[in-house]
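Bumping with the actual sequence this time:
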Amino acid sequence: MSYLLGIDIGTSGTKTVLFNTNGMTIASATKEYLLQQPHIGWAEQNPEDWWKAVCHTIQSVLTKSGISSKEIKGIGLSGQMHGLVLLDKNNRILRPSILWCDQRTDQECIEITQKVGQEKLLEITANPALTGFTASKIMWVKKNEPSIYEKIAHILLPKDYIRLMLTGNYATEVSDASGTQLLDVKKRNWSQEILGILEIDSQWLPKVYESQEISGTIIKQAAEDTGLLKGTPVVGGGGDQAAGAIGNGIVESGIVSSTIGTSGVVFAYTDEMIVDPKGRIHTFCHAIPNTWHVMGVTQGAGLSLKWFRDQFCSQEKEVAQLMDVDPYVLMTQQAEQALPGCQGLLYLPYLMGERTPHLDPYARGVFFGLSAKHTKREMIRSIMEGVTYSLQDCLNIIEELKIEVNKVRVSGGGAKSSLWRQIQSDVFQKEVVTINASEGPAFGAALLAGVGTGVYKSVKEGCQATIKEIQHQFPEKEKGNIYEHYYSIYRKLYQDLKETFSLL
């Protein structure tokens, strides 16, 4: 039998998964690394940590599975989007990568909008200038680190740095490149007009492929470092959200995905380029040729619960270690004891500013309505509910754009919690579904590798052959009414606090 390898270079760690061509997970390995925050609102990582994690997890997967690397038909890459990797002419890393959640570039976004024009930005890149995108990061380095800027020879995204290490090729693909603010999203290639206005050398940028196209093969050094077979094909892959959507089967109208990872994303397929004129949600190329997707993003989804776990749940972590369970299991058990709506305790998940729908890098996390009656259980549940309200903000805009939404497929770490799935169903008032494939972006990347190497004729065929719905949860009207009331207050809170956030 042939096998496919999916590699997902995430924010908290790299996950490598080996699948057979029926979509079954054969072996999986994860290696975590640090996120550095030199200042409030900044977020950086060392690309060398990603490469070490990739090597470690590939070796681990090959060892666990007992599969020969000769049996791996193809490799797909996925990863956190927007991150800026700068290399000199000798491929040396010039500075730590500035990540998707970094908020330092507010002024650069204003300058990009002034130089290019709001209408032209939406027309060409399909999105307003945002702090998370790559273009503003490049402009920040130009302004604040000119000695580094003058040494730039190559600009890559996180997964594409790993591609360079694996294949020796400078390459990207359309879904990830869409998030740089430098791609003509309709034409699916770099915009020479935007590059000219921003004075960014087009020679610095990699070649753009469709996500299922072969972008290179494993080189000798990478084979020695990882245990892979020299010459194994590596396809374009996808940004984590597009690849995760492929892994969720979001390849036709009517089905959207809600993913709670570090960030939270509501993602919808479209066979035409639909742009929100207010720029509240993103429009990017999908990982299927001649299709696009829209997605709303909340910055601090799973990040919020992880932050609370690390700061306030040391007892749960200790007990969980003794019980050999995930600390989130114990936290969820506590949250289940709290009433829907948490007796008036609301949480705004803006730990890293916010994208959809506010586009506000100054927004901050808030517990609102806290009283002496509230306990840790209400605080944990209010985080789950607050993140879901933020996802509801995204879903509202998608439906406002007349995009069909019949059911929601949930994924990411948050989908492991039956409680969090039910909260989503009750808030959205939609059927919520889980599928047999739980490896998200890594699985989607592997499916793309299967298409590129001829295992499947198309992405849709690959999804149909491997993905099945397994759990269905339906909305409860009574709880929906409770959440509708608190959601209206949640929406008002941002408007009430907007000016105060900026004062901070």
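The tokens above came from a reply further down the thread. The first strand starts at residue 3 and ends at 9.
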